[in-house]
Amino acid sequence: MKTAGLLLPFLVPILWGLGGYFGGRLTQKSTNLFEGHLYITLGFIAWSILILVATGFKAVSNWQWHPVGMALGASYALGGLVFILAIFFSGSATKVVALSALYPAVTALLFFLFHGEALTLKKVIAVLLAIIVGWLSV
Question: Per residue in 18-46, pLDDT tens?
Fold first, then answer.
């Protein structure tokens, strides 16, 4: 389990990078403003069904509506929609991807403010460098 915990974080930017690339390509080639968002939604639905079937529907055996879960779903759905719209209207996938890659700074700040997670000097410098790189690419 420890190896997966070390390797999986490296897979996230690769997969999201692929998603950003394909989303940008689709948005640039499509005349339908919401087509990219619909494909993202279909992908989430397909993976959700696969996970449910693979786990014997255990994930929903004790289902309870949870406000944090709803916020998670809403933020990902809205974020995906805004991402596609930003590429469509800006005409530059590179700029949108660079700025959207700053989301870890928002996450770190929220965990610091609301959950008391420590912000070490190393983390602050990393976030500041990410912000600088994001703005330089615009």
Answer: 887 887 788 777 777 778 778 888 888 89
Q: What kind and span of H or E run contains 122?
A: helix 121-136
Closest CA to 137 of 102, 100, 84, 99: 99
> What gap in Å lies between CA 20 and CA 98, rounded to an integer?
10
Q: Which residues of 57-79 are buried (b: 16+ CB within 10 A; e: fewer)?
A: eeeeeeeeeeeeeeeeeeeeeee
Q: What is the pTM of this model?
A: 0.68
Residue type, 53: V
Q: Are 95 and 134 within 8 A, CB to CB?
A: no
